[in-house]
Amino acid sequence: MSSTALLTDQYELTMVEAGLASGAAHRRCVFEVFARSLPRGRRYGVVAGTGRMLEGLEQFRFGGPELDWLASRKIVGEQTLEFLRDYRFSGSMWGYPEGEVYLPHSPVLRVEASFAEACLLETFILSVLNHDTAIASAASRMTVAAGERPCVEMGSRRTQEMSAVAGARAAAVAGFAATSNLEAGRRWELGTLGTAAHAFTLLHDSEEEAFRAQVEAFGPGTTLLVDTYDVEAAVNKAVEIAGPELGAVRLDSGDLVEQAHEVRRQLDSLGNTSTQIIVSSDLDEHAIARLQSAPVDSYGVGTKLVTGSGAPTASMVYKLVERTDDAGTPVRVRKSSSGKESVGGAKQAARRYDAQGRADAELVGLGELPTSPDQRTRELMVPLVLDGQVQPGHTGAEGVRRAAQRHRDSVTELPAAAQRLQEGEAVIPTIFA
Amino acid sequence: MSSTALLTDQYELTMVEAGLASGAAHRRCVFEVFARSLPRGRRYGVVAGTGRMLEGLEQFRFGGPELDWLASRKIVGEQTLEFLRDYRFSGSMWGYPEGEVYLPHSPVLRVEASFAEACLLETFILSVLNHDTAIASAASRMTVAAGERPCVEMGSRRTQEMSAVAGARAAAVAGFAATSNLEAGRRWELGTLGTAAHAFTLLHDSEEEAFRAQVEAFGPGTTLLVDTYDVEAAVNKAVEIAGPELGAVRLDSGDLVEQAHEVRRQLDSLGNTSTQIIVSSDLDEHAIARLQSAPVDSYGVGTKLVTGSGAPTASMVYKLVERTDDAGTPVRVRKSSSGKESVGGAKQAARRYDAQGRADAELVGLGELPTSPDQRTRELMVPLVLDGQVQPGHTGAEGVRRAAQRHRDSVTELPAAAQRLQEGEAVIPTIFA
Question: Do the Cβ atoms of B239 and B246 come closer than 8 Å?
């Protein structure tokens, strides 16, 4: 990806065009990103994509090919083309750092810049945050359900090829231990995993030959897929070929709870007490929860993860909440469209804690940081970009590692109800202070 | 995107590694892509992504950066790295051309190559086809519901930024008239649209100033967004400022049916009988169907389109169905895993028609093309790649145009029940001949 600048809706550019002509495009503006609600029944969400958004921001430049195309299609005129030619974001952004829990109306991102500079970024910012946040929010329910057992992301084939890369990263933010996706592993230094599919077994004249080829190539510590034909026979063969060192067997079909018990008994009776069992058939957080009592060692999660487990987008919006008038005085603004009302004015946010150190409210303040007279609070928004400079610690592999730690810390602070998988209200209320 | 080769699951490479070591990787194989079922309640699906997949196939090369990373992570050894260095797909592919209707078990793609060559492509092929097919299948329900009224794709912000580009293309395959996404417009010469958001109105001291700025920049033929504050007042102002030439007004909130009637009456009473009404608030195929009786001129569709309207992935799989043995003789293969059985052997497919020229069955034959003694049939699979050469007409802007025409033709042939939006069975049965 050389330039990210055309990953946008046409109207961002036409608004700049009309605003440059009228002069209003130079007004200082505050835009905010928030979700009016969590996906149906969810208790909390997890902010993700911040690092990717900041990486893409640095590539948000209009080069020759982009400008030539815009000119040839007459999408904007000469004045706007000149503006776009020199465009680089020179404003500032504050937001919930990646991995942080969010709730309805949490101001997860605040963008301060001229209208023209901030408007141009709307679609790109929302695309990244809406997708990655949806995946991380689903992934968090899965890692919470899995407890100490590792989850492995294997969903690449069930989502667009670049969403797969972003989804693997978002899963890592929310505690997934590894991914099957190589490009995600390369970009953000994620752990990658993978051994063989059913096709590898079918390729050989017998299951035994396939297992032998795999063990010869990767040693007995490999993971053998044992459900191409008959599971019991396959486990016997796997142990016979790989011996007591056999790393793991994988089950990818059928009643996983029952099979895990049977296979565990069989492995133990063969002396393979340290051979692990990996399961991976259409798992979601509910299936993981059901499997917690079964002797399973790790979970491979695919489709349901990369499609957000029923909520493929976080439905965040990017709204103008404040802008200057001709005298340079800030004016709070809000639309009053039916069902889509918003709250004007730049916001700050803090999480409030009870005496036991559990989060008990999301405080959102207009203009200044909300506090509580008697309770501890924690400021939630941090500087991400200051005067055009992306702040350190949010991008690259470091950004993902820090976000994963933040996710653990932030989820741990939530009330126990956060771990409930059934549908319910947000786990803590959002209070406009 | 320089190389697409790491947009894959690790196990595709480790299977090649083990297969090269054992020699089995050189066996000639047939893999097939199909969906065991349509998304719940859908009557038919629309194949999409074929052109993008073929475009990406030409970039599926392991260059220095990819090989260095694989070596540094020790994901595969020297023999496999050598193989990957020279990799280019030299096999053949046949499949349903893009835009064609498919049904459960339709063999939408057949890949013939050595195991190593075909296995490597699994994840990438599925990622592209599963995403684009899901979007096109949802889009087709929308364009069918919309009848002669144009649908415009506006969902970029609600999906990952590259999925947005692919989604706009898939929507065009299924009959969408235009997209807001500029990168999609550039890559495949799609029509693009867009004028202004609520932020543009809020930026100005009054709605009137905002409308004036927009009309000055784009002329009276522009589309004015009239629901930032009070719709009736906004329509009056819009007509006052733009005059009888006002191109369109857009409604993005509230009860669209009721508002469309009111705004139409208002526009007509002001003499603006040719000013159009565009609606765009969380539309899906059901909302479009409800709006068909309202005086609406076009539909802007976002979230529900790019998330597949409840079915974000087509759940297609890529299965080994045939491979040679040591003597070079083809052997049909299939796994027998519980709930995931497949049918061995390379398949061909034809659509069968009744005397009125309506499609009445999907015929799938093993080995040879299925025919019907008394009824007309049409062969469905066409050559996409022959001996490594991508066949003309499937990629680029031409590919999208041809796919859109094919979609129209193919949907038109289906029984009337295909147009029902309520849940039901596949509109024609799949018959294994």
Answer: yes
